[in-house]
Write a structure and sequence with these properties.
Length: 510
């Protein structure tokens, strides 16, 4: 790994500053500790911190932190050698490693800072026409939804229009597929006067003649939604979109390192993106952007535009096209270490037992932990079947539920509850699990990771019991007393119910 750097520093005093500490390295020939709390030794997590929120930011293993620190010395020992000579070959190795994991060709994959960056790169490279449509969902991640909104709001014309699919969980995969298909058909019926002939290369009716390409529909599809943290049937949704002539952009921010058998060469989305710093254990921030060769003509510019940009009007374009890979090798001076830590992260995961072993443990823990947490709180899990569960699960919190939007929770009340929960979890109980309001009820999204065990879910369930009681005693007390005067029984005693009414999603993450 070190190459010239090892020779350069051999015998120097500064070399001692990068000697690995406890947990920062491992013997590949020795069996790793069992999954669960024994593996916390290999993470930088505070011993007393109970982390059920790995899905938000990731948790970096110490060997990856050590490799990144070592790399920092190498970069600054001779920035010219690193940036001019040593960086790009390692970036190629990282792209190759990621491509192998997701079933893609190396030159269809580039690395960017995060999933939001990747999404913006794709969406801002489409050439929009008046009458184009973008399909999102009520569960689309906030920054992604706002990107779509920006494209529809911007002052420059032409502008696309936005359509939204309403997902009120719990839902089955079959129901999700039907809602998706119905929204596409509804869009075409409502815009019957528009010719949607700009279709993806693999769709029926594709034409290479630019004059025949009128309007397009682009669907932004989650593979695993953030809130609730549920696995969608995105592969089947890709197939439906392809049949309907709809472009697909798969927001798979949570997929790589969590979801099994991604295989993009088989699924054939038009574009796909995922964070390597969440579930794959790479250093923040690092995300993969997949653009198959058939669609790289759309990706005219990296964000920001790099030195390797090729004008479609220039002579070089006929030779290299948009120069997709080289444009993303260097978009300006930045910290390159996250991209280069990808092989180190994958090697650590292989030492732990590989992708299948990690998934099997975390999936089972997500299922069992959520059930145990629900038992502790006297509630239930959002998805009893497990069809929606990868390695994140969702559990209803012991708070009143709404049948009519706004009957209990105004936006101001929701904000107060979110703030109280966040502060109590972090600063009083030394833990964190996602919490949000969805479909009339408060829900906790819990991440199951290799360093967790069932006791973590029990602890967080007990903490939420205390916090939710405080919410009832303080924030909701006045509302309940007023309702009791008007209509009888207090809503503080309302059980968790089966029929949910959507109000709004409150995302307490940044």
């Amino acid at each position: 790994m070190l190459g010239w750097f090892t020779q350069y520093f051999a015998g120097s005093d500064s070399r001692r500053r990068i000697t690995p500490g406890p947990g920062e390295t491992y013997d590949i020939n020795r069996k790793p500790p069992p999954f669960g709390h024994p593996l916390k030794h290999y993470f930088a997590l505070d011993d007393k911190y109970v982390n059920l929120n790995h899905g938000s930011y990731g948790s970096i293993p110490l060997p990856v932190i050590y490799a990144a620190n070592l790399l920092a010395y190498e970069i600054d020992s001779n920035p010219d050698i690193f940036n001019r000579v040593a960086y790009k070959p390692r970036l190629v190795k990282s792209r190759e490693a990621v491509a192998k994991l997701i079933g893609a060709e190396a030159d269809e994959v580039v690395l960017v800072p995060n999933a939001t960056h990747a999404l913006n790169t794709i969406m801002r490279n489409f050439e929009w026409r008046e009458g184009d449509l973008i399909i999102g969902a009520t569960t689309t991640y906030g920054a992604v939804s706002n990107t779509i909104r920006y494209l529809t709001d911007r002052s420059e014309q032409p502008r696309p229009s936005m359509l939204t699919i309403v997902y009120n969980f719990p839902l089955t995969h079959a129901e999700i597929i039907e809602l998706f298909r119905a929204k596409i058909q509804e869009a075409k019926q409502q815009h019957a006067d528009i010719q949607f002939t700009d279709v993806p290369p693999l769709s029926p009716g594709y034409d290479t003649d630019p004059a025949e390409k009128k309007n397009k529909i682009v669907a932004v599809i989650d593979s695993i939604t953030s809130n609730p943290g549920v696995l969608l049937p995105w592969k089947e949704m890709c197939r439906i979109a392809r049949e309907e002539g709809v472009w697909t952009v798969i927001d798979a921010a949570h997929s790589i390192g969590q979801e099994q058998s991604i295989n993009l060469s088989e699924t054939k989305p038009d574009f796909w993106l995922s964070n390597c710093h969440k579930w794959l254990f790479a250093k923040r921030g690092c995300a993969v952007l997949y653009a198959p060769k058939r669609n790289q003509n759309i990706m005219k510019s990296s964000i920001p535009t790099s030195h390797e940009y090729v004008s479609p009007n220039g002579s070089k374009y006929a030779e290299v096209g948009t120069n997709f890979v080289k444009q993303h090798e260097w978009t300006g001076t930045t910290d390159e270490t996250p991209y280069i830590t990808v092989p180190t992260a994958i090697a650590f995961r292989e030492w732990l037992g590989g992708e299948e072993a990690i998934y099997d443990y975390c999936h089972k823990l997500a299922m069992d932990g959520a059930r145990r947490m629900a038992e502790v709180m006297g509630t239930k899990v959002l998805d009893e079947s497990g069809e929606l569960v990868a390695t994140m699960s969702n559990v209803y919190l012991p708070l009143p539920t709404e049948k009519t939007p706004g009957e209990i929770y105004s936006p101001e009340v929701l904000a107060k509850i979110s703030g109280l929960m966040m502060n109590k979890l972090l600063f009083e109980y030394n833990t964190y699990a996602g919490h949000f309001f969805h479909n009339g009820a408060w829900v906790s999204r819990c991440s199951a990771q290799v360093f967790n065990d069932i006791s973590d879910f029990e602890y967080v369930g007990k903490v939420f019991n205390v916090i939710c009681q405080e919410v009832k005693d303080t924030i909701l007390r006045g509302i309940c007393e007023e309702q009791q005067q008007q209509s009888g029984p207090s809503i503080l005693n309302s059980p968790v119910e089966d029929d949910w009414v959507i109000l709004a999603d409150i995302d307490v993450e940044s």
